[in-house]
Amino acid sequence: MSLVDIVNESDEIVGQADFEEIHSKGLRHRSVQLFVFQYPDYRDKSKLLVAQRSGNQETSALKLHPSVGGHVMAGQSYGEAVIAELREELFHDKSELPRGFVFHEIAKYKNDTRTKNKENTRLFITEYSGPFSPDPKEIERVFWQDPNEVWEDMKSNPEKYTNSFKNAMREYMFSLHGD
Known about the structure:
Elements (H helix, E strand, L loop, with lengths): L2 E5 L5 E6 H7 L3 E9 L10 E6 L10 E2 L2 E4 L6 H13 L13 E7 L8 E9 L11 E7 L1 H10 L6 H15 L2
């Protein structure tokens, strides 16, 4: 059974529970989102790696999602969680990540995506142009897209995207433009 830290509004650990209890009771917990950019200049010309969730997912099947996202397990830091989720989702058949990843935390925010899903989330960015080996149990496909095009499409077609992606994209755009 995988345990997750229960946290308060100030992100202080106040207990632990498994996923089922966390989500059935609407307990606040931690999560990470990661945007993988194709080139180092993520603020200008680089494309964002977008993941489409697998049709096997219980929640938001086949919706578009950030490059990587997931829960922070009990005892993990946000930084440890983002590395673990990256390996699990985009390099699932590798025992180690390729060299050279540098992670930058660019936002922390409340990511309350559903009535019983209350998360304190940290958004990270990194750069890597591939190749990837996505876990087919979690990800249907990945593709590169201009982040401004993603943002505009989210406004026109919000139903195509997970709530977590919409929240992360809002935080990303705000970090760039203050909009």
